[in-house]
Design a protein that fits this description.
The chain has helices spanning 10-30, 127-141, 217-231, 235-243, and strands spanning 32-40, 51-54, 60-62, 68-74, 77-84, 91-97, 103-109, 150-152, 159-162, 168-171, 176-180, 185-196, 201-211, 252-257, 270-271, 278-280, 285-288, 293-298, 333-338, 344-347, 359-362. It is of the alpha+beta class. Strand 2 and strand 3 (60-62) form a beta hairpin.
C-alpha cells in the first residue's frame, strides 16, 4: 500500500497538524447520523436494550427505555445497520449513506418461536460439549498464530449439534464476545448461521469492534504493526484491491481453475482479468462472480517493475494468457474461491453482503475472526 505521508522534522509535523485541523472538522461535519426506534413487530411495543450497530465497525449503541437509538459519525457509503435482541430474529438493513445527510427509521424485530421442551441445567458442561467447543473455536477463530491469542469470554452461551459424517452446527441467541490480544480489539458477534459439513464452512455473523486501550505504549505499537500484517494478503485486502483495480500492484494474482483437484497437477492455469470477475452494481456495490473456481495467490515480493510489458487484452472472454502450470512450485500464499450459488455483492470496504454464498479453502480458510479488522481500517492508521 502507498504510504500516507512521512514527516522528518518537528516543524513540518506542527504545520501538518494545523493544516489538518479544519479538514478533520469538515470530515466530522460530512459524517451522517442514523437514528430511530426499535419496535416489537407483533405488539408494536418498544424494545429496550437492543444492540444497534454498523456491521464490522466500531459504531454501536443500545436502545433506551423508549426503544430509541442514535448512531453518530457514520461515514458515507454503503453500510449494514444491525439490530438484535434476545428472543428476536436479527434485523439487517442495507443503507446508502450520503455525506452529512441524517436518516431516521423504525426497526421492527420479529419474535422467535421457541419450542417448549425439557431443559437440563448442570453446573458443569459435558465432555462432549467441551469437545464441540474446541471444534467451534478452531473453525471460528481460525488456525493462525493470531487465533492462539484470542479468547472467547462467554462460551457458556453456545449450543452445538454434531451429526455422523462430520456435520457440525453452532447456535446462540446471545452476543458472543471475543478478546483478540494479537490486534487489540474486542469483538462482539451476532451469530446468524454456523454450519460445517466436514469440508466447507458456511457461516454468517455480524461484528461490532471495540478497541482495547493499552496502558503500555509499546503494546499499542505492537498492535499497530500486527494489524497491518493481518490485513496484508487477507481476503478483505484482496477484495479492496479488486474494487480499486490494484490487484497486481498489491501482490495478488488470479487464476481460473476447473477443479480443485487439478491445482497441483500439470494442467495449465490461466490468469484472469479484473473485468471478467467484477462488475459495477448499484447502490455503491460491486458484483463479483467466477466461472468455477478462482485461485488467488499473494506474494509480498510481487512488485511490478517500471516499464514492464503488460499482457495484451484478450480477444474473447476465455482467451487468457497462459501462466506456469504447476502451483506446487509457487511459494506465495494460495487460496481457492467457489461461488456455488452465483455472484456475491461486495462494497468498497471489502465487505461481502451475502457471506453464505462464498466458499473458501486454502490460506484464507485459516484466517477466521482472529484476522478481523474494522471496515474503516487501512494500513498506516491506528
Amino acid at each position: 500500500m502507498k504510504p500516507w505521508f512521512h514527516a522528518g522534522a518537528g516543524c513540518v509535523v506542527m504545520l501538518l497538524m494545523q493544516a489538518a485541523a479544519p479538514t478533520a472538522m469538515a470530515q466530522d461535519t460530512l459524517r451522517a447520523r442514523i437514528s430511530g426506534r426499535v419496535i416489537d413487530d407483533s405488539t408494536h411495543a418498544p424494545i429496550v436494550n437492543a444492540n444497534v450497530f454498523i456491521a464490522n465497525s466500531m459504531i454501536g449503541t443500545s436502545s433506551d427505555t423508549s426503544g430509541m437509538f442514535a448512531l453518530r459519525n457514520v461515514p458515507e457509503g454503503f453500510c449494514e445497520l444491525v439490530v438484535s435482541c434476545v428472543g428476536f430474529t436479527m434485523s439487517v438493513t442495507h443503507l446508502q449513506i450520503a455525506a452529512g445527510v441524517s436518516q431516521e427509521l423504525d426497526v421492527r424485530l420479529t419474535p422467535k418461536v421457541l419450542s417448549v421442551g425439557v431443559v437440563e441445567v448442570t453446573g458443569k458442561r459435558s465432555e462432549v460439549w467441551l469437545e464441540n467447543l474446541k471444534t467451534f473455536e478452531r473453525l471460528m477463530l481460525g488456525s493462525s498464530g493470531e487465533a492462539e491469542e484470542c479468547r472467547l469470554l462467554n462460551p457458556e452461551v453456545l449450543e452445538f449439534s454434531a451429526e455422523p459424517g462430520g456435520h457440525f452446527r453452532a447456535h446462540t441467541d446471545r452476543v458472543l464476545t471475543v478478546e483478540n490480544m494479537a490486534t487489540g480489539y474486542r469483538l462482539h458477534l451476532i451469530l446468524g448461521a454456523f454450519d460445517f459439513d466436514g469440508r466447507w464452512l458456511s457461516s454468517e455473523y455480524k461484528v461490532r469492534y471495540e478497541e482495547i486501550q493499552p496502558l503500555d505504549p509499546d503494546v499499542r505499537k505492537k498492535w499497530t504493526k500486527h494489524r497491518a500484517e493481518v490485513f496484508s494478503g487477507s481476503l478483505r485486502h484482496f477484495l479492496v484491491s479488486l474494487v480499486n483495480d490494484e490487484v497486481t500492484s498489491e501482490g495478488f494474482a488470479m487464476y481460473d481453475a476447473e477443479s480443485p483437484s487439478k491445482l497441483m497437477g500439470d494442467s495449465p492455469l490461466y490468469e484472469v482479468k479484473r473485468y471478467e470477475v467484477l462488475h459495477q452494481g448499484s447502490g455503491g456495490l460491486w458484483s463479483f462472480s467466477i466461472r468455477k473456481y478462482l485461485v488467488v495467490t499473494f506474494d509480498r515480493r510481487r512488485v511490478p517493475m517500471d516499464g514492464a510489458q503488460q499482457m495484451p487484452e484478450p480477444r474473447r472472454p476465455r482467451d487468457f494468457a497462459a501462466v506456469t502450470p504447476r502451483l506446487r512450485n509457487m511459494r506465495p500464499q494460495l487460496s481457492v474461491l467457489s461461488l456455488p450459488k452465483g455472484a456475491i455483492s461486495v462494497d468498497s470496504h471489502g465487505q461481502i453482503m451475502n457471506q453464505l454464498a462464498l466458499k473458501v479453502s486454502g490460506d484464507w480458510a485459516k484466517e477466521g475472526i482472529a484476522h478481523g479488522l474494522p471496515i474503516d481500517y487501512r494500513p498506516g492508521t491506528n
